[in-house]
């Protein structure tokens, strides 16, 4: 059993997508970030950066005591190694997957997050920031599109944790003022993941939490 400390954000959705794909048993524990639950002392013991998602795996592979993890990329890597799914053991494909996973956690997520913040939540308009993050968002979509013009999935021929990490952020394309049809390879990839049964289950569970 895995406890998933969750809020329905792109980073939260990454982990439910993986858990549903891998058919792992898990329990969703809602962290209401609007009420400051992420600052509770018991949560900070699991996630010292006061961010979701975080997990506790009560049945780690070594058979020892429960293990907790924070940071979505680290959690995806842990779960992939635990299950042997969505991360190839072949040297080149594995490292390609990790490059695109780190591209997401280091670039795509933070930049799209800033885009969303300055377009929707800043207390007053900041034209420079709006323009900066819009241009960077478009650049990243272009990078993603060029990659997906060459291969069906970010790692190459197989669906992986890199795709699972990136899709929830692209799922917010409308709020990022992106016209997804201008990136046809991304649009095709996005629709293929959206229609996967595991993706549908994950998004439905998020709405019920």
Q: How many structural domains does the protein architecture include?
A: 2
What percent of residues are in strands? 5-15%
Main sheet? Answer: 4 strands, mixed
Q: Share of helix among residues?
A: 55-70%
- Report how far apart the termini are: 18 Å
Widest sheet, order of strands: 2-1-3-4
The CATH topology of the largest domain is given as Glutathione S-transferase Yfyf (Class Pi), Chain A, domain 2
Strand-and-helix sequence, N→C?
EHEHEEHHHHHH
Low-confidence stretches: none
Instruction: Based on Cα principal axes, name the global outline.
Output: globular
CATH class of the largest domain: Mainly Alpha
- Number of β-strand runs: 4
Cα Rg: 17 Å
In CATH, the architecture of the largest domain is Up-down Bundle
Number of helices: 8
Give the class from helix and strand content and strand pairing: alpha+beta
Mean residue pLDDT: 96
Main traits of this protein?
209 residues; four-stranded mixed β-sheet; single chain; Glutaredoxin; Glutathione S-transferase Yfyf (Class Pi), Chain A, domain 2
Walkthrough of the structure:
It is a single chain. With 209 residues, the protein is α+β, with helices and mostly antiparallel strands. It folds into two domains: 85 residues, Glutaredoxin (3-Layer(aba) Sandwich), CATH 3.40.30; 107 residues, Up-down Bundle (Glutathione S-transferase Yfyf (Class Pi), Chain A, domain 2), CATH 1.20.1050.10. The protein has eight helices and four strands, in the order E-H-E-H-E-E-H-H-H-H-H-H. It has a four-stranded mixed β-sheet with strand order 2-1-3-4, with helices on one face. Helix 1 packs parallel to helix 3, helix 1 packs across helix 8 and helix 4 runs antiparallel to helix 5.
